[in-house]
Design goal:
Strand content: under 5%
Strand order of the largest sheet: 1-2
Distance between the termini: 24 Å
Shape: globular
Radius of gyration: 21 Å
Helix content: over 70%
Largest sheet: 2 strands, antiparallel
Number of domains: 1
Number of strands: 2
């Protein structure tokens, strides 16, 4: 494992674009802390995001992992460019000539995916801890350690997403086309969701029926791992109650969703290996 990881990071160390994208990604993760600085006063109305409780434990685990997951496309570019460079610079063929098996090649990429996801997760965890201790109104250990499942969900989401990017990179061999294929798949899932709503428009509990089907699609499942956190805020709920609306929504990380994303991760890695094994390089 460490030998294969060493090979991958040696390649990345000599790839300027990958290094720049990685630096931008982690810089943007750090910039989540800048949200605390957003404040303005309009007459008697004082708006300060940090004072709204977004950095309170345990809510911060939900909020920060959701916001950080939006930035995962930067590392996706690193993953797909990593694959594209193997074909462009003929390093894949050279690795195989040097004795690396196709299985080891795929494993090296998958280990790199896990490493990127793990580093990102630890980074978000540390940033969240610092922000939480700086701004949270609640610092009891039992509260701090609540909702840590969002950290696990963030890790699984990144591994699944990057594994999808790895498969697309091997499938189309070009980073731009791989990202384009990811966007096409996203649009396809959205169109299918719209079709389901149209199909079940006259049925009861339409949204529940649609969600019960969509939850098995890869990108939808990854989205469901960490649901939007904004309607969970006390200020948002108070505003909704004042307008006669009640927010009844589960924000928990579902174990079934973790299983679905894990299964898709296995499928993407297996298909990557099967595709590479079939090709004559």
């Amino acid at each position: 494992m460490f030998r294969l990881l060493t090979i991958e990071f040696h390649k990345l160390r000599h790839n300027t674009a990958s290094k720049v994208l990685s630096i931008i990604y982690f810089a943007l993760l750090t910039s989540i802390a800048l949200i605390a600085a957003i404040k303005f006063d309009i007459g008697p109305i004082k708006f300060h995001l940090a004072e709204m409780g977004i950095f309170n434990f345990p809510y911060i685990w939900h909020f920060n992992t959701y916001m950080a997951a939006i930035l995962k496309f930067f590392l996706l570019l690193v993953i797909v460019s990593m694959i594209a460079n193997e074909y462009s610079y003929k390093t894949l063929k050279q690795n195989l000539i040097d004795g690396l098996s196709k299985k080891e090649f795929i494993l090296s990429k998958f280990y790199a995916v896990i490493a990127f996801a793990l580093i990102s997760t630890v980074f978000v965890f540390v940033v969240s801890l610092i922000l939480g201790f700086s701004y949270s109104d609640y610092n009891e250990l039992s509260i701090i350690t609540s909702d840590l499942e969002y950290i696990l969900a963030f890790f699984i989401k990144l591994v699944g997403f990057f594994s999808f990017g790895l498969f697309l990179g091997i499938l189309v061999k070009r980073s731009a086309f791989a990202v384009g294929a990811m966007l096409v798949w996203l649009i396809g899932e959205s169109m299918f969701k719209g079709y389901l709503f149209w199909t079940f428009k006259s049925a009861e509990n339409t949204s529940e029926k649609v969600d019960s089907i969509m939850q098995f699609l890869p990108l939808e499942a990854m989205t469901n791992l960490i649901k939007e956190p904004f309607s969970r805020l006390g200020a948002v709920r108070s505003a909704a109650n004042s307008m006669g609306e009640t927010i009844n929504k589960s924000y928990a990380v579902d174990f079934s969703t973790i299983i679905i994303v894990s299964v898709w991760t296995f499928i993407f890695i297996y298909l990557s290996y099967a595709l590479l094994k079939k090709r004559d390089l």
